Amino acid sequence: MNVQWTKVVVGAFFEVIWVMGLKHADNFLTWSGTVIAIVLSFYLLIMAGRKLPVGTVYAVFVGLGTAGTVIAEIIFFNEPFKLSKLILIAVLLIGVIGLKIFSNEVKTKGAQN
Question: Fewest beta carbons within 10 Å, which of 9, 44, 81, 100?
């Protein structure tokens, strides 16, 4: 199952790239990179969703993508740093980690019965 979760994390990484690309792309090369990132992101999401619970996969994917986008904007594009933003991202990531852990526990318990 770790391979499937790796696909979700890598897909979320590409989601961060394409979301930033939508805002900052201004020529053929950057728009091409944005489109490639969109395709890779959703391909990995779909592949992981075939083996894992789709609702959990999507929640983790979007949560990681959201957190990654906010952090990347602060680091690379000088968005204002606000402690409240980082606290809310931490809460979001705690929820994402909880979903992943709970999803694995349910799967394991179901397999034992």
Answer: 81
Nearest to residue 96, comparing CAs of 63, 53, 47, 65?
63
Q: What is the pTM of this model?
A: 0.79
The tokens of 42 are what?
A: 């959703």
Q: What's the residue count for the chain? A: 113
Q: How far apart are CA 14 and CA 84, in angstroms?
A: 25
CA distance 22 to 31: 8
Q: Determine the angle formed by the axes of helices 54-76 and 2-24, rounding to 10 degrees.
A: 40
Does residue 34 contact residue 21 with C-beta atoms inside 8 Å?
yes
Domain ranges across the chain: 2-112
Angle between helices 2-24 and 28-49 (to 10 degrees): 150
From CA 18, how far away is CA 37, in angstroms rounded?
A: 5
User: Using one digit for the tens of pLDDT, what is the confidence trace for 39-79?
Assistant: 999 999 999 999 988 888 998 899 899 889 988 998 998 88
